[in-house]
Design brief:
The chain is mainly α. Helices cover 69% and strands 5% of the residues.
Amino acid sequence: MSVEKFVHERDAMPDLVQCALIHEQFEAIHPFLDGNGRIGRLLIPLFLIERKRLTLPLLYISDYIDEHRKDYYDLLQRVRTHGDWNAWIRYFLTGVERISRRAADQSSKLLDIRERHREKMKDKPRAAALLDELLKNPYIAVSRAQKALGVSNPTARKAVELLVERGIVAPLGSKRWGKVYLSKEILEAIEQK
């Protein structure tokens, strides 16, 4: 059976096992001159979205592969030389489990941060509305706040200044105009590995 047909095969095996096999086959075929690894890793969440196992491409297995790079290449090679699919599938499933747990922990921390800051801002709904914007991107400028809130520049500026006063964001640099603010706590939670 061709890889193309195998990708569309349904109910023959668990989706994650099928995904592991598809990834190995893509890496074995190595169809492009450059970028095969990135594309191969990108196919993982896309396959899982197509199978309705994910709603968004949030499974970033590259971190696990980078942390265990030697095992990754050794196990891919071992499939080719010894047909050792079991070791490859165990490696892949372990990676998915660890990355999924890490993402769940990270999400929990971000939600805790949001709820704690919402409590600080419960008396200021416009500034509180910016918390969700900070979860999308922990850097914010008044112009982005203005667009997100649909308010005038002075009103957006006041909302951002409230975030500064309450210790949620801090200005970066000393520019007077076009200043960018950062929620360091959210950035650290996002970058945590």
